[in-house]
Amino acid sequence: MTSLIQNIGRLAVRTFRRDPKLPAGAFTSHYEQLYNLLNAVTTQDINLDLGLLHDHGAFTASKDGAPVTYMQLYENSDVTICVFILKNGVRLPLHDHPGMYGLLKVVHGAVSVQSYSFIGDTTVEGPQSGLMGSPTLSDILPATKHQLLKVCASDPACRLCPGEQNIHEIYSLDGPAAFLDILSPPYGTDERFGLERDCHYYQEIESRWEVSQRESNLVWLVNVPTPSDFWCDQTEYKGPIISEDGDEHGS
Ligand SMILES: [Fe+2]
């Protein structure tokens, strides 16, 4: 019998397969199915070690090791399925997902999600989307700041797409938190299209704007190096193996 996470994995592969021969509308249909299925996932479904979720109090780098633990469930050339575990009071720094879709489902605890959308980001689906304007350090980019969300395990997944809510910062709230992430295409080298999808980090710049600009949620984001206090260790996935079924391209 196929488990929920295996079904999610297969559907994610089907949804994000970059095949130009797929009929129009297939993506939307699969994506909505995937979103609904993902909303039911729990820590039990992925056999998450509850020891990783133990609350040791406010994070201290000298005694707690990495602030964030990464666990990869599956990856092929089109999609990454992974879990991020955040210790008490830490954050995934403000970062982007160049040309990528993302689904983020909290499975333990609660997080705050502060999202932004680059203004003038007219990226559309396709291998080049979101990559033509890759920022270099110190680039300053205008963005819309969205409403701060508090998301917990009983809430539906958050979504991001190539041109919308594509930059975010995520804090654990009131203790450790864990969320399942489905990202497509994956970060890194895209061998199929000969592209690099690097993750860039940002800081919001304080500015003395006119009231009208502040009220419109217009902000400026500066591209910065990876924050030195942020790093991940890794843990092995011990849940049901996500098969290659439905993955015609292999990994
Ligand atoms: Fe992210």
UniProtKB/TrEMBL annotation:
Recorded GO terms, molecular function? metal ion binding; oxidoreductase activity, acting on single donors with incorporation of molecular oxygen, incorporation of two atoms of oxygen
Q: Which GO terms describe its cellular component?
A: mitochondrion
Which UniProt keywords are present, listed alphabetically? Answer: Dioxygenase, Iron, Metal-binding, Oxidoreductase
Protein's UniProt name:
2-aminoethanethiol dioxygenase-like
